[in-house]
Amino acid sequence: MSNFSVAFRNADAATILSVCGELDAHTAPELESAIKKCRDEGKINLIINGHDLDYISSAGLGVFMAFIEEIRTLGGDIKICALKSKIFDVFDLLGFPKIYHIVETEEEALSLFERGIQPIQGD
Amino acid sequence: MGGVGEAALMSTNILYQAALVLCFLCLWITIAQALENSRPTPAQIFWHVILTIIPACLLIILILQIPGAFLEENLPAAPIVHVKSALLSMVLAGLSFILMQRFGHLVRFRRTRRSERNWYLLLFFFSLSSVTSAPFHHHFEDLSSNIDATLSIFLLLALVTSVIFIFLNTVRLAWIIRLPVKRKMGALGLGIVSVCFTVTTLLLLFSPDVLALNSITDLSRPFEFLIFYSLPLTAIIVLCITFGFAYALTSVLSLIFHLPTIGDYQRSVDEMAAIQALTVLVREVADPEKLYHWVVSTPVESGRGKAAWLTIQDLDSGSLKPQIVAAHNIEASLADKVCDVSAIHGESAGTRALVSIQNTAADRRIQNGKSNGILSLLAIPLATRTEVLGTLFVSRDVAHAFENEDIESIGIFASQATLVLENARLLESKIERERLASELAIARGVQQRLLPQAMPRFATLSLAASSTPAHEVGGDYYDLLELGDGKLAFIVADVSGKGTSAAFYMAEMQGIFQAVAQIAPSPHDFLCHVNNALGRSLEKNVFVTAIYGILDCNTGAISIARAGHPPVAFVDVNGDAMLLRSGGLGIGLDRGDLFGQTLEVKEHVFNPGDLIALYTDGVTESRNSEGEEFGYDHLLQCLQSSRYERAQGVHDAVRQTVDQFMGPEKKYDDDLTLLIIKWHGPEPVI
């Protein structure tokens, strides 16, 4: 009874992962394997579109942390966009906006990649 | 002779016959008693009968050696003749009774009500024949001519019925089917011997002329003596011997007819025994290796297959490829090389049906089957109601070797083996579960002791706290530490994720708090130290959120910092409530300088009646049955309405409200921790 799904979409500058439903300890591995798949295919510019994300738990947040370092080392980034305000609040509480680009729209996120904006942290 | 004489003779006869019947009834009972105690196997019964017949015949011949014979008819016999007939009758009666008792056992082997009834009816009609023959005793031949007609009809009827029952009972040969091969052969030999022997004996007894023994002794027919002694007894003995002979004959014939099917029967008996052994095994052996070995060796040893192996798909091993866990009469590696185990396992498990490859040369999943002795192959899924435990492969070195009957039999065995394996697995997982449960109970105890066992007491403030893990152990932590000079350090932390791994980090957190708070009590230093210390050990996808603060118990000055944690709820004495949301990253999010740069420390001085609530997201994210979250507003409202209580009262009010909100099911999704600090001021408010 998984109420979570990930859909892939390729844009010019990045691969967009649209997440839908509830991202918790049970569904986190799905997003994990989705990001892993992108990484293995060499797609390192990733946008997580959270427009349809209804809930995120700490385990869900952990997925972003698990890959960010590696993706950035490879020269890519994970950017997050279109979060509902309630979900954004969870990201914000933890300080994610200090580490990730979290923007309003997918276009904004794409343009960040297109313009070659560096990830927030230089390391 | 007159009527009186006749009547007297008649009554003497009746008395004589009655006494005789009584004597021989005693003999019958004695033999029955003697034989009742020994319960030999059917084959042994045959031996016993032979061993009885030989000495009995010798004895008869010996008795016949005694001089003395019948004279002319109607002349009184010499006393020695009486003795001789009595002795002969005893021996013959004894022999026939033993024969009846022994064969009675065989006839009633695996008895049913009907066979039991037929046997007793046989005995009854034997007795009836005997009784109805009484009036024909030779002493009265001339006297009883008038009753001859009706009585002889009775006698005839009784005899005919006896013969019918002899026939009915001789077809009761259930014991033969049950005999093991060796015993069957033995019994056959014995049967032939005994039939030959009986025939010879009868010829010897009835027609001594044939063997020309006449010249040596006066071998008159022993039955002449018997008839002379008692006609009813003769009747019963003749019937018994007839039955014995008939039964031996049918047994021998039946044994001969059974010979061709002995092998098949033996095989199914062996299979049944093997299955039974397997069931016994599961009770004693919990070792899966041994069970697997039995599962593969049984079809081979019962002759259904030439080689067998078992594949199990163990998802825990991380491989999707089914592994050969046991093989019999073939090397596991060879079986793996010759046939595409994965493909066949996949088919049998997918369809949950048997895969039968009658000619492996024509199946691309098998390579070089011919040179490796695998020409027919069966793959039987060991399927329970819910899953497929594995696949049993049975092969033969001839193509088209598996008949329907073999397939059926192996199928039955496979379902039995499935049960056995499943039982073993259930047993194992139960043991494992119990072990885990007891270890978790220990862990829970340990974790509870990591939390403060009692709240420190102060005149100026009151404290209350609790922590409830969603599972046995959790990742929530709260603690308080008196630092001396009236300062109190406090912390509420939440390790991401739940359960065992979170519990380990929680324990680490406790160690760090107790040590670091003493050295670097200021919130900024403390949390930076924690980030450095934990950052090294945390997994990449795990983080910890925390709120740490220092309270001066003399002045009410509080200094507090938030590392990614839900904000502190602050309520003042006027009922103004707010969330103190200072900046700060979760611990473990950044392992560089960013953590320290973004961390913001808030300073405040409590007024009497002010209170703060530190909590984990288990409180605000508690959901009711409709899936709604408890939320910050609800929490603030609750704090406002209970703000006049001491810390314990406020704490209890919040916990109760949360419990009520969650409804009667009250299933905690997340660890839930709450710490209330209420400032009463230097002069305590009562």
Written description of the protein model:
The complex is a heterodimer of chains A (123) and B (686). With 123 residues, chain A is an alpha/beta fold. Chain A has four helices and five strands, in the order ββαβαβαβα. Chain A has a single domain (4-114), classed as 2-Layer Sandwich (Transcription Regulator spoIIAA). Chain A has helices spanning 28-40, 58-73, 85-94, 106-114, and strands spanning 4-10, 15-23, 45-56, 77-81, 102-103. In chain A, β2, α1 and β3 (45-56) form a beta-alpha-beta unit. The longest helix of chain A has 16 residues, at 58-73. The radius of gyration of chain A is 13 Å and the shape is globular. In chain A, 45% of the residues are buried. With 686 residues, chain B is an alpha+beta fold. Chain B has three domains: 13-69 and 77-264, no CATH class; 285-429, GAF domain (Beta-Lactamase, 2-Layer Sandwich), CATH 3.30.450; 455-679, PPM-type phosphatase domain (Phosphatase 2c, domain 1, 4-Layer Sandwich), CATH 3.60.40.10. Chain B is 54% helix and 15% strand. Chain B is built from 20 helices and 15 strands. In chain B, α1 (3-37) packs across α3 and α3 packs parallel to α9 (231-258). Chain B is elongated and about 145 Å long. Mean pLDDT of chain B is 83; it is low at 210-220. At the A-B interface, α2 of A face loops of B.
Helices and strands in order:
The complex is a heterodimer of chains A (about 120) and B (about 675).
Chain A: E1 4-10, E2 15-23, H1 28-40, E3 45-56, H2 58-73, E4 77-81, H3 85-94, E5 102-103, H4 106-114
Parallel strand pairs in A: 2-3, 3-4, 4-5
Antiparallel strand pairs in A: 1-2
Helix pairs in contact in A: 1-2
Chain B: H1 3-37, H2 42-65, H3 79-107, H4 113-133, H5 148-170, H6 174-178, H7 181-206, H8 222-229, H9 231-258, H10 262-284, H11 288-301, E1 307-312, E2 323-328, H12 332-338, H13 341-351, E3 355-357, E4 376-383, E5 388-396, H14 404-450, E6 461-468, E7 476-484, E8 487-495, H15 499-519, H16 523-537, E9 544-552, E10 557-563, E11 568-571, E12 577-580, H17 594-598, E13 601-605, E14 611-615, H18 617-620, H19 631-641, H20 647-662, E15 672-679
Antiparallel strand pairs in B: 1-2, 1-5, 3-4, 4-5, 6-15, 7-8, 8-9, 9-10, 10-13, 11-12, 11-14, 14-15
